[in-house]
Amino acid sequence: MTIKVLSVASEAVPLVKTGGLADVVGALPGALAPHGVETTTLLPGYPSVVSALNRPRAVHAWDSLLGTPARLLSGTLEGGHPLLVLDAPALFAREGAPYTDAAGRDWADNWQRFAALGRAAADIAGGALVKRGKQQSFDLVHAHDWQAALAPAYLRYAPYGATRTPSVITIHNMAFQGWSGPEVFPQLSLPAEAWALDGVEYHGGVGMLKAGLASANAITTVSPTYAREIRSATFGMGLEGVIVERGNSVHGILNGIDAKVWDPAGDLSLAARYSHRSLDKRRANKRALEAEFGLDAGDGPLFIVVTRLTWQKGMDVLPEVIDHLVGIGGRLALLGSGDATIERDLFKAAARHPGRIGIRVGYDESLSHRMQAGGDAIIIPSRFEPCGLTQLYGLAYGCLPVVARTGGLADTVIDANPAALAAGCATGVQFDGVSYHALAAALTRTVALYSQQDVWVRLQKNAMKCDFSWKASGRAYADLYAALIA
Ligand SMILES: Nc1ncnc2c1ncn2[C@@H]1O[C@H](COP(=O)(O)OP(=O)(O)O[C@H]2O[C@H](CO)[C@@H](O)[C@H](O)[C@H]2O)[C@@H](O)[C@H]1O
Fold first, then answer.
1. What is the pLDDT of residue 135?
2. How far apart are CA 9 and CA 118, in angstroms?
3. Contact partners, residue 95, CB within 8 Å, separation at least 6
4. Are 287 and 295 in contact (CB under 8 A)?
5. Are 42 and 29 in contact (CB under 8 A)?
6. In order of start, what are the domains of the chain with their CATH numbers?
7. DSSP 222-247
8. pLDDT digits (tens, 9 = 90+) for 11-46
9. What are the φ and ψ backbone dihedral angles of 252, each rounded to 5 degrees?
10. With 90 as the cut, is the pLDDT of residue 365 above it?
11. Which residue has its alpha carbon closest to ligand 1 atom 22?
12. How far is ligand 1, taken at its centre, from the CA of residue 408, in Å?
C-alpha cells in the first residue's frame, strides 16, 4: 500500500534555502519513496519558487484564502517528486528573503503569510484538489516548523467531515515559534474553541508552533537527544510544558544527508576527489582551500567553520578563542553570515593573525563543499542543536567534527576519549558547555590528536565509514506514518 503524504514547509532545496530545514524537506520525498511513501511537497510561492516551475499548471484557486486571492500551481521537485506551490502574490511575491525584508526585518504579515500556507494545506488534505473528476486524497499531513504549524490546527478544527487526516509536526528549531498578538486570532477563521490553552492561545496571543504541537497527532524532532532536551526549560524555550504533556507522542528521528550531494568521491566541486581509501588526495583540496582563503600553506591543522553567525551556534565565543587556536599551531577558514557584532569581532581577531585566519562573509554552497574536503576539522560550538547537518557533512568528508555535546551533535559524533580510541570507534571531539575554556581545551585536544597522524587517519576513516544517509531515518518516518494511519 502506498502512503500519500502532504509535506508542508516554508523552504526546500533546491528551490529556496535559508538553513538546514530546506535540506531536510528537499530530501524527504526521496528518503521516503523506498518505504512506500509518496510525498507531495507544498511550498509558498516566493518568486524564486514560482519562476523555477517548468510549465506550471493551476490546479486550484481560492477567491479568498484568509482574505487574499490565491491559486495552487503544480510542478515537480528534483527526482520527479510532486510539488504544489501556493501562488498568493499579495503574500509571497516580494523582494527580500523568505521571512525578512531587504533590511533584515521580519515581514509584519508573517503570521498571515504562513497561516495561509497552513490553511491551504488543510484544504488540500480536506479534498480541495480534483483530478479527472476525482478528489485527490492524502493519508497524512507532515508540517515542518512554525511556518507550517497551523496546518495541524486547521485540520483539527475544520469541519471537513468525520474522518480527519492525521498530522505530524516536526520541530527543526524550537527557538523560532511564530508568535503574534491576540488581534490576529479573529482573522485566522478558526472557531472560537481554538482559542484555548490546549489550542492556539499562547501567552495571550497566537502561538503558531504551540498550536501545531497541541494539535498534531505526533510530534517529531530531529534527534533523540534534542527530543529529551526540549522537555526542560532551557531547551524547551517556554514550550517544555506542551512537550512533557504530549510525551508519548514525541519522537526523535535523526536527519540524514543526501549521499548523492555529499560524497567526496563524486563531488565535482573539489580540486581532488577521494574516498577513505585515498585520504592522501585530500592534500590537494587543503592547498586549494588555503589559496582560496589567503592562508599560509602548511601541513599543520586547518580548522573550518560553516555556519550562520548566531548565538545558537556559539559564534560569539569563537572570536575569543582565535588567539589560542593560532597559538597551538592552528589555522582557520570561516564561511558565515549573520550577526554584525560577531562578524566585526571575527574580523578584528583575524587582523591580528595574517595568513592564519581567513573569513568569508556570505552564503556559498559550493565553497562549503570545498571547505569540508580541504579542512582537517570543523568547529561546531552550538549552545543547542536540534540535529545539525554540518557535522554529518564533516564526517562524510573526513573533516573531523569538534562539537559541543548537545542535541544531534551528541548523537552523531563519537568523542575520541580513551575508551573510544582503544575500541577504535572514535570519530571526533566533544566538549561540554560553550565557553572559552571548554572550546579552547577541545581545540588543544584536537591538535594533540592531529599530531599523531596514524591516530588521526584512523579517526578520519571511522568518520567516513559512518552511515548517516537517510536509510534508517526514512524507515523511521514511514513506520511512524503507518502507525498513525492505522
Ligand atoms: N554561509 C554558508 N554558506 C553555505 N552553506 C551554509 C552557510 N551557513 C550554513 N550553511 C548550510 O546550511 C545548513 C545549516 O544546517 P544546520 O542543520 O547545521 O543548521 P540550521 O540551524 O540551519 O537548521 C535547523 O534545522 C536543521 C534541520 O533539521 C537541524 O539540523 C538544525 O539543528 C537546526 O538548527 C547546512 O547545509 C550548511 O552547510
1. 86
2. 9
3. 47, 102
4. no
5. no
6. 3-256+470-485 (3.40.50.2000), 279-465 (3.40.50.2000)
7. S-HHHHHHTTSHHHHTT-HHHHHHTG
8. 999 999 999 999 999 999 999 999 999 999 999 999
9. -105, 115
10. yes
11. 19
12. 12
| C-beta of residue 371 within 8 angstroms of C-beta of residue 306 | yes
Q: Residue 161 pLDDT > 70, yes or no? A: no
What is the H or E stretch that residue 410 is in? Answer: helix 407-412
Cβ of 364 less than 6 Å from ligand 1: yes
Q: Output the DSSP codes for 62-95.
A: EEEETTEEEEEEEEE-GGG-EEEEEE-HHHH--S
Average pLDDT over residues 168-184: 97
- For residue 305, give the nearest of 275, 342, 351, 274 by alpha carbon: 342
Give the 3-state secondary structure of residue 349.
helix
The H-or-E segment that residue 271 falls in is none
Other C-beta atoms closer than 10 Å to the C-beta of 395 total 28
Q: How far is the CA of 452 from the centre of ligand 1 (A)?
A: 31
For residue 144, give the C-alpha cell.
515542518
pLDDT of residue 162: 45
Give pLDDT tens digits for 110-123.
999 999 999 999 99
β-strand 205-207 against 201-202: which pairing, if any? antiparallel
Q: Which pLDDT tens digit goes with each residue over 422-469?
A: 999 999 999 999 999 999 999 999 999 999 999 999 999 999 999 999
How many residues does this entry show for the chain? 486
The phi-psi region of residue 398 (left if phi > 0; otherwise alpha if psi is between -120 and 50; otherwise beta) is left
| Grid-cell match 519513496, residue found | 33
Given this model, what pLDDT does residue 160 score?
A: 57
Residue 169 near residue 216, CB atoms below 8 Å: yes
Single out the residue of 13, 29, 32 nearest to residue 21, CA to CA: 13
CA of 308 from ligand 1 middle (Å) equals 7
CA nearest ligand 1 atom 30, residue: 388
Classify residue 234 by burial, with Cβ atoms within 10 Å: 0-12, 13-18, 19+: exposed
Q: How confident is the model at residue 132 (pLDDT cuts 50, 70, 90)?
A: confident
Q: Which three cell numbers stand for residue 235?
A: 531547551
Q: Could you tell me what percent of the chain has a pLDDT over 70?
A: 99
* pLDDT, tens digit, 9 for 90 and up, residues 219-233: 999 999 999 999 999
Q: Which residue type does 96 have?
A: G
Query: What confidence score (pLDDT) does residue 316 get?
Result: 97
Looking at 297-368, which runs of residues are DSSP E strands? 302-309, 331-338, 357-361
Q: What is the pLDDT of residue 254?
A: 98
Q: What is the pLDDT of residue 245?
A: 97
Query: Which atom of ligand 1 lies nearest, measured to the CA of 308?
Result: 8
Longest dimension (CA), the chain: 71
Contact (Cβ atoms closer than 8 angstroms) between residue 302 and residue 443: no
Residue 161 alpha carbon to ligand 1 centre in Å: 40
Residue 210, marked binder: no
